[in-house]
Amino acid sequence: MMKKTDSQLQHDVLAELEWEPAVDHADIGVAVNEGVVTLSGYVKSFAEKLAAEKAVRRITGVKAIAEEIKVRLASDRKIADHEIARRIVDMIAWTASIPDHKVKVKVEHGWVTLSGTVDWYFQSMEARKAAARISGVVGVTNLIEVKPLPAPADVKSRIVSAFKRQADLDAAAVTVTTDGGTVKLSGKVHAWNERSIAERAAWSAPGVTKVVDFLSIA
Fold this sequence. Notes:
Elements: H1 6-19, E1 28-33, E2 36-43, H2 46-57, E3 64-67, E4 70-71, H3 81-94, E5 103-108, E6 111-118, H4 121-132, E7 139-142, E8 145-146, H5 152-165, E9 174-179, E10 182-189, H6 192-203, E11 210-213, E12 216-217
Parallel strand pairs: 2-3, 2-4, 6-7, 6-8, 10-11, 10-12
Antiparallel strand pairs: 1-2, 5-6, 9-10
């Protein structure tokens, strides 16, 4: 009989766990190295853990089992890191404004780290909000970068045009300067809401990675 490769063995183990009715395989991970099968993840009872191990032992070619499955009772509210990561990835995929293929997700002890590069600042913020909404998340570090634009002058013209479209903002009173992806706003506005309008307009320009607000209230 031909010796199974680790990849074939992993496929057989996963298929057997899926076939076994006493095991909920959804949260069980399987790794194989030179015939040694490592089981990881979570099950809901010790009996289910034993059933998973028994199912793996039925597979031809398994030399040994490294049992790392943890039992998480229904009363235990802690959510596993891999579950959190999967839910965040799904949430990002469901959010049309976020390019899911550009955002990477890492979860360690409930703390989420987002990385990657997007075209717009609001996409970075939407990804952070999506991660924060998932149960079990204890914190979010957002390392997503906004792709810088090679033409800062174009960024400035886009922002100025956005100012002119705002009925509540005196565009002529606001000065815009750019330095790479950094936008500096200066001048005077009539009220705090005008300052917020100016900041939002600046952040809405593609490639903006930082907004420095020097606006004062007249």
